[in-house]
Design goal:
The chain is mainly alpha-helical and 218 residues long. 93% of the residues lie in helices and 0% in strands. It has helices at 2-20, 26-37, 42-74, 79-217. The longest helix is centred in the last third of the chain and has 139 residues, at 79-217.
């Protein structure tokens, strides 16, 4: 029994050491084995073994107390009782250490699983943050590009506005020139009408003079 307890204690110590210290792929191997142990009927089996060991521990402690009480009453302890007392004490100590190491292994496995989950979540969060940063950078580049395009459009609008003002001024000048030309044409038309009237009058005077000249000749 004691040899088996030493074997269990050493095995638990090795498992605890591998969980605390990462040595190559051994930690992952131990974690997988513990995961399988906690699946299906594993927890019930572990609880049964732990309960049995607790009962044996309680029995050993009871035996130790009986031997001490017997020695107190008799005032001396026989060599046989001393051997039994030491055997029970060693057995109780080994069982206690084994249960304690089992509890430590269980907690280490639990917290390492949580740590792995947190690392996975942190990795996913980092990827999400990098993705958001890339999207932010992309949006920023788009904003800068849009800002440049807006500036170009504003400059183009400004140029078009200036050109429009120039065209308006040119149109106004042309309108003034057209009005001046129309006035000049109107003046020329009036002058032409006056000349035509004068021409008609001169023709009449000429005809009248010719008539008078013919009268004198006859």
């Amino acid at each position: 029994m004691i040899q088996l307890l030493f074997l269990v204690l050493f095995a638990e110590g090795a498992v605890a050491l591998l969980l605390m210290v990462k040595i190559g792929p051994l930690r992952e191997l131990v974690m997988r084995n513990l995961d399988q142990l906690k699946m299906g009927k594993g927890p019930a089996t572990v609880k049964t073994i732990a309960g049995t060991m607790s009962v044996i521990l309680a029995s050993s402690v009871t035996s130790i107390l009986k031997i001490q009480n017997k020695g107190s009453k008799l005032g001396t302890v026989t060599p046989m009782d001393q051997v039994l007392w030491r055997t029970h004490l060693l057995e109780a100590s080994l069982i206690g250490y084994s249960l304690f190491l089992g509890f430590v292994i269980d907690r280490l496995h639990h917290y390492l699983r949580k740590l792995t989950g947190l690392r996975t979540a942190v990795g996913a969060s980092k990827q999400e943050i990098e993705k958001i940063q890339k999207e932010h950078q992309h949006i920023k580049e788009k904003e800068e590009k849009a800002s440049k395009e807006i500036k170009l459009l504003q400059e183009e609008i400004s140029n078009l506005t200036e050109n429009l003002k120039k065209l308006k001024l040119e149109c106004e000048d042309k309108d003034k020139k057209v009005l001046s030309a129309e006035a000049h044409v109107a003046a020329l038309q009036k002058q032409s009408e006056d000349l035509l009237l004068e021409y008609d009058r001169l023709l009449e005077d000429n005809q009248h003079l010719q008539s008078e000249a013919l009268g004198y000749r006859s």
